[in-house]
C-alpha cells in the first residue's frame, strides 16, 4: 500500500504582515540632477549661422566628420591677389555672397595647418569625403586609418583650371569654386584609398564623378521662379551637386526642410536668397581671370598633407611616401 504524499504548503507568518492600522509608507522622491550635469540640447538658430540650419539632426555621441586637403593661400602671393579680385567681382554681382576662408594670422606648421603668426593667410579646403558621422568609439580607428594613408602617400602637385558654380546635395547653397585640373588622377587615388575605411564604417563614398575643388564664396539658394511665377525645379546648367556641406564652414549646417514659420520669415528678411548665381558670373570670372588661374606658377599648389575634422577637433598628417626617381637605361 502506497503512502499518500504530503503536500508542503508554505504559509506566510502573521508576524510579517503589518498591522491593519499602520500608516502607508510614502515613497521618497529622487533628488533632481544638478544643473551642471544637464547637457542642453542644441537649438538651431539660423540667425547665428548666416541663415544656415542643420540638414542632419543633432545626435548625442555622434560626431560630424570630413577629410580634406588644406590649401593655405598667403597674403601677397599671386593666387591670393587673384582670389581677392574674383571675390570683389562676385560681391558686385551677388551682394548676398559670403566669403569662405577669411584672412587670419597664421603660418604653416609641420603638419601643414595654419597656426597663429604675424603673417596672414587664407585657408581653403579641398574635400575628399562627404560629411560623415562617427560614433565615439569609431573616432580613433578612423584617425589611424587616415594616418596610415598619409604614411603611404607621396606629395604631388596640383593646379586649378577654371571657376565653377557648384551646389550642395540639398540645393540649399551655391558655391563659387576653383576647380582642379592637374592632380585630378592623384586625388582620385586618394579617394580609392579612403573607400575601404568608409565602407567598413558604413559611410557613403565620395561622388562617383568627382570634381575636385576649393570654394571661395557661397550664397543661400531659394526657389527658381519662372516668368509666370511657377517654381522651376530644374538644376541650373552651371551647377553640379557635389559640394560637401561643411566645406568652408565650422559646422554642419544645411537645410533640413522644416525650420518653422518664424525662422523662414527671419531668413527671408535677414538672409537674402538667390535661385542661382547670375548666368554671366562664371563666364565673366573665367574671361577676366581664367588664364592667370590656370597658369602653373599662380594656380599651382602642393598636396602634401591630409586633414580630418571630427566634431571640433582637427588632426593632420603629412604625406610621408618617397618619390622614386626613374633612371633611363
Major sheet description: 6 strands, antiparallel
**Rough outline:** elongated
The arrangement of helices and strands along the chain is EHEEEEHEEHEEEEHHHEEE
Tally the helices: 6
Between the first and last Cα atoms, what is the distance in angstroms? 111 Å
Radius of gyration: 29 Å
Average pLDDT, to the nearest integer? 77
Topology:
Layout: E1 62-74, H1 78-93, E2 98-99, E3 104-108, E4 114-127, E5 132-135, H2 139-152, E6 156-168, E7 173-180, H3 184-200, E8 213-220, E9 224-225, E10 231-232, E11 241-243, H4 261-270, H5 281-294, H6 296-299, E12 300-303, E13 305-310, E14 313-318
Parallel strand pairs: 6-11
Antiparallel strand pairs: 1-4, 1-5, 1-13, 2-8, 3-4, 6-7, 6-12, 7-8, 9-10, 13-14
Report what the structure shows:
- With 329 residues, the protein is α+β, with helices and mostly antiparallel strands.
- Helix content is 23%, strand content 27%.
- It has 6 helices and 14 strands.
- It has helices at 78-93, 139-152, 184-200, 261-270, 281-294, 296-299; strands spanning 62-74, 98-99, 104-108, 114-127, 132-135, 156-168, 173-180, 213-220, 224-225, 231-232, 241-243, 300-303, 305-310, 313-318.
- Strands 1, 3, 4, 5, 13 and 14 form a 6-stranded antiparallel β-sheet that branches. Strands 2, 6, 7, 8, 11 and 12 form a 6-stranded mixed β-sheet that branches. The chain has a two-stranded antiparallel sheet with strand order 9-10.
- A hairpin with a 5-residue loop joins strand 3 (104-108) and strand 4.
- Mean pLDDT is 77; it is low at 47-52, 226-241, 245-262 and 324-329.
